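ok posting inputs for the flavin-adenine dinucleotide job
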Amino acid sequence: MRTQVAIIGGGPSGLLLSQLLHRKGIDTVVLERKTRDYVLGRIRAGILETGFVNLMREAGVADRMDKECFVHDGTVISHGDTQFTIDFKDLTDTSVVVYGQTEVTRDLYDAREAMDGTVIFNAENVQIHGADSDAPHVTYTTDGDEHRIDCDFVAGCDGFHGVSRQTIPLTVRREYEKLYPFGWLGILSETPPVHDELIYSCSSRGFALCSMRNENLSRYYIQCSLSDSPDDWSDDAFWQELKRRIPSEYADKLVTGPSIEKSIAPLRSFVTEPMRWGRLFLCGDAAHIVPPTGAKGLNTAASDIHYLYNGLIQHYLDGDDTGIDTYSEKALARIWKAERFSWWMTNLLHRFPDQSEFDLKMQAADIAFLRDNRAAQTVLAQNYVGLPY
Ligand code: FAD
Ligand code: DHB
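and the output
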């Protein structure tokens, strides 16, 4: 088989790139290790920046999102008895939208199918060959049969555990990582959200977040120990702990119900440099991870796709390689700022096991400054709604 761009990974990054390129007449093949149902069963991000929304529109897949999403003009931050709103709209004239990653991915799969895009599921043993040559190719197996795709470029959109990053030799690749000493336990429940804005809550018992997917689907998270497993937490224990960590005005009106999904994600910051090696380009979680505080994971994947998509259309339509040659540099410049923001928000709102009394005073002072200072709120809001591409 021959294609112009072989895309490894059928998550949001790979599908969005495939859809955008297809609409410009550039041929792609997407190789996904799992099934479509498996990918759609993963409950992940929920908040989209305007840049992401615009890319979905450019990809022609925004109709359902535009109808069903919720626009959020601000978010609540609480610390003990203090709570205040960061008004994104007032501070930056921009908002974010609530629309789940599952729905984004479903819309992209539907669009790929409608355009007869090639997505190969259950692709095993994917290997990238000759990425540093002029003629790369990718091999994979399905049902024990080996296949080969010759291509001009390879987009590594295969997430943190994929093969693409590992293909770049260690002599070229430099990795930066920070692990946090806690995780997030998340549940999804068919109950109305406790508030019409998100609530990020820093309490003496640890962090909690109240989020949502729609008017009858809520997503809640609590900071948990890395040694916890979801089975250690009954629904009742989760709800009790959440109530202890959020302001009483919300705890009192929280509607609880059975969880329909429960999972734990460890928190990590990670960046690999460079994001390009020869004709291989890394995008999204394949190249970087942020802790979820601040909702940047999926949104940083989208900015990578923006830069790579524009670089590839410049190459194919104008014969100009400037965009692909500056891809790594441009993508990383924005990524590092999102890494900083997610790291800062994680430090601001979580309880750390080794926090001293002094550290707690510093955290409280940081939050009080944010509450009282419009400039500090503007910095948070600018980062939360998304830095420009
Ligand atoms: P992925 O979504 O990981 O997609 C990669 C795809 O590649 C997968 O479908 C995988 O099956 C496939 N693949 C992997 N290896 C191979 C291979 N060898 N060959 C072929 N295919 C392969 N972000 C937020 O903003 N908010 C959140 O609440 C949030 N929660 C998260 C919870 C969890 C448990 C995780 C893991 C991430 C979460 N994120 C969150 C981050 C966000 O979901 C990711 O940033 C986003 O999914 C990145 O998209 P991606 O397409 O780059 O990678
Ligand atoms: C969600 C996840 C986040 O990490 C976040 O900061 C906000 C919302 C969510 O899953 O809804």
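notes: The CA atoms of residues 36 and 298 lie 18 Å apart. The radius of gyration is 21 Å.
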